[in-house]
Amino acid sequence: MARDDAARKAQLREAILNYVRDNALAADTVDGILACWLPDKSFEDAAEHIDAVLETLVAEQHLRSYPLPDGNVLYVSNVKCSTSQQTS
Fold first, then answer.
1. CB 27 within 8 A of CB 65
2. pLDDT score for 41
3. Predicted structure pTM score
4. Strand partners, 67
5. pLDDT tens digits for range 16-32
6. pLDDT for residue 86 is more than 80
7. With respect to CATH, is domain 2-77 assigned 3.40.50.2000?
8. Domain limits of the chain?
9. Are 73 and 65 in contact (CB under 8 A)?
10. Does residue 54 contact residue 33 with C-beta atoms inside 8 Å?
């Protein structure tokens, strides 16, 4: 069971990182992340692990967190925009 939880957290972490890599200005609450940042399939149990995964991503400095007046937390991408893209 613990191994399954670790695997699910790793999948969730990777899905969130993929989203913020593609959307460098991403910012949302837990509810918004669950609704908009994750693929529609394979993450039905994400709510069980989201808090731990977001805490890890903040600790790793992939996300920043800001408490909101309503008690929610806003998670903001801390992934830098790619500078390798050049315009012609």
1. no
2. 83
3. 0.84
4. 73
5. 999 999 999 999 999 99
6. no
7. no
8. 2-77
9. yes
10. yes
